[in-house]
Amino acid sequence: MHIKSKLRIVNTLILLSSLVLLQACSTTRVQVQPDPMFAPIDLKQSRYQPVNNGAIFQQGRSVRLFEDSKAFRVGDLLSVSLSESTNATKSAATKTTKDDEFSIGGGTFFGVTPTNNGDEVLSNSLTSEREFEGSGDSAQSNSLRGVITVMVSEILPNGNMVVRGEKIIGLNQGSEFIRLTGIVRPQDVSSNNEVVSGKLANARIFYGGGGVVAEANTKGWLSRFFSSPVFPF
User: What is the number of alpha carbons within 13 Å of residue 49 lying toward its C-beta?
Assistant: First the structure.
């Protein structure tokens, strides 16, 4: 009896451990993982470290007394104000109609017109009617507002800055992310070290999330198959 009690306790512990592991897996699954493509650069690399030459003035560590505190070096931070809005509409309508009529006379055979009960045997006529009508409408609207701070990852030869960064926000029952990369002109950066997303060249802005709400808003794999182009019907 004592051995059976121990076995029950062990089985209970195994069951509880399995439930905890499943819950941990479920929690990990809904979390958004950082993307290495948008990760901050490693400033510990030698090419980004200023060289200490023993002088009072050190390149890369200067104090700007008469300039705005704007990003202009690799590793500096820059705030991007997301102000994206797109609206697109498209409408198309097509209607075609075509009627054809062709008649062939009875003709003669050795000077005689073949008839049957007074009707010419060789006479014939062809009539065709074709009609097509189609219409389609499409409308799409998107809007994205917010602020994300990114890091200058590269300075181009013409002085423009390549920036990249991401923001991951953990919410109840899920998480959301904003990922951004692009090229910024120093002239477009305001005095408070901020630039509007519309001024970014070659911009790549991604917004998404994961969790219970995202999963509830996603079709199942079978529904996606029936809605895919490979479905023949």
Answer: 7
